[in-house]
């Protein structure tokens, strides 16, 4: 019985059904945000939402029964269990804030679709490198923030009145959000301020932020390479029958060599 349930929950059609239910549930939750649609079809959408949750709970119960303790050894299974547990909270309490958590169910697509799982795995593997880049970026923002506060604290706009405001403005500049407007406003006080801003953009935007992209691309390539290595089958060891044939062929070749040497 358990093997039959396992073959069912691991089958491609069952996974496609779950994906379809997740997508349908996501569409319904999105339509609920439209007041006109909610007034007209609110009861239907609530019914669909409840049945989708029932499907998710039944799926988890079947997977728990099919895999037993092995269910908790897979991080993705634990992720699904957490998402469904959070989705049950709105029905237990009914508050509007908790009802907003129903959209968390859409995150289950991350565990169901292999391509999304690959992306998430690559992101997780890149966390140590990303933390190092964040440290470099934080140091850059701090140093440049102290410099900007000392140089442009009297500039109009209040962008660099204190260290916190300066670091926030510099972070805005790194993202490319209207940094030229900030620069030109500061240049009304210090015409040579463009040197600071251009240099910061070159170092912060074109160097540090591009490191994030390079790190993510490298992590993605490593993830794909590791999956390809896992798919390649290991060379099959020779079976006893094959070994016996090889031994006979070697003995036959040795006899042929002896006959040739005796004839010569």
From TrEMBL:
<dbReference type="GO" id="GO:0001518">
    <property type="term" value="C:voltage-gated sodium channel complex"/>
</dbReference>
<keyword id="KW-0812">Transmembrane</keyword>
<feature type="transmembrane region" description="Helical">
    <location>
        <begin position="156"/>
        <end position="174"/>
    </location>
</feature>
<feature type="transmembrane region" description="Helical">
    <location>
        <begin position="194"/>
        <end position="213"/>
    </location>
</feature>
<dbReference type="Pfam" id="PF00520">
    <property type="entry name" value="Ion_trans"/>
</dbReference>
<feature type="transmembrane region" description="Helical">
    <location>
        <begin position="12"/>
        <end position="31"/>
    </location>
</feature>
<keyword id="KW-0406">Ion transport</keyword>
<keyword id="KW-0813">Transport</keyword>
<protein>
    <submittedName>
        <fullName>Voltage-gated sodium channel</fullName>
    </submittedName>
</protein>
<dbReference type="InterPro" id="IPR027359">
    <property type="entry name" value="Volt_channel_dom_sf"/>
</dbReference>
<dbReference type="GO" id="GO:0005248">
    <property type="term" value="F:voltage-gated sodium channel activity"/>
</dbReference>
<keyword id="KW-0472">Membrane</keyword>
<dbReference type="InterPro" id="IPR005821">
    <property type="entry name" value="Ion_trans_dom"/>
</dbReference>
<feature type="domain" description="Ion transport">
    <location>
        <begin position="14"/>
        <end position="223"/>
    </location>
</feature>
<keyword id="KW-0407">Ion channel</keyword>
<feature type="transmembrane region" description="Helical">
    <location>
        <begin position="121"/>
        <end position="144"/>
    </location>
</feature>
<keyword id="KW-1133">Transmembrane helix</keyword>
<dbReference type="InterPro" id="IPR043203">
    <property type="entry name" value="VGCC_Ca_Na"/>
</dbReference>
